[in-house]
Amino acid sequence: MKTLLLDCDGVLADTELYGHFPAFNYAFEEAGLPFRWELDEYRELVLIGGGKERIRQYFERHPEYRTGLTEADLDGLVARLHETKTQKYIETIESGKIPGRPGVRRLVDQATADGWTVAMASTSAVSSVKAVVNAVLTPNSIDGIFAGDSVKAKKPAPDIYLAAVSALRADPQQTVVIEDSNPGATAAFNAGLRHLVTVSALTRDAAFPHASLVVTSLGEPNEEPASVLAGPAELLHGSVVTMQTLEGILESA
Prior knowledge:
This protein has 253 residues and is of the alpha/beta class. 42% of the residues lie in helices and 11% in strands. The protein has helices at 15-30, 39-45, 51-61, 71-94, 104-113, 126-136, 159-168, 182-190, 243-251, and strands spanning 3-6, 117-121, 144-146, 175-179, 194-198, 213-215, 228-230. α8 links the parallel β4 (175-179) and β5.
């Protein structure tokens, strides 16, 4: 059985920039905290897998904002901030303000029709991933969601992909991952999985040395063609990523 594993944020939709980033700042404002994240700083924080981990890392970088807080206090604050942020993020997704990225629904539908197992593998909260899946993909096109705190170590650790492969009983040699970030691509590589990268607004300047193919998007026929940034251009068909592309990636090893 062939398997397609997809990251969520930046792959299904450009949610990091237009969803998570403003939702974090909303949570900080609601909590009465004296700071907001700037976009340049968020570009660095995006390299950290997991929302709670990003918040905690920010407090580690800025100890002036945690003065007087014990570790238990900080744990509680991080959890509350993340809960508020997640609720705001889901509201944004359910409002329909963030469209799906070009080609993702088409490719998932094609993979399902061809008998592939299709699942999500993300460091975001399960509820956040479900919201994006419901907003972007055809109903019942996903065979599983592996996300959030279901594994001990988040991307770039390979844990989430190893867990997905194990639970789905997938053959690693017959599995393709679609990612958008360096931590995600590194996680796929460390799990021994071939991967394709579709760069997003926050990752278009990143390097992906182990990717089989790096593209601007998955592309939509006659609407938005995909461009190859790295890898064999012949893997694209009609200027879009197709099932032939995925088959070509599997055959290229």
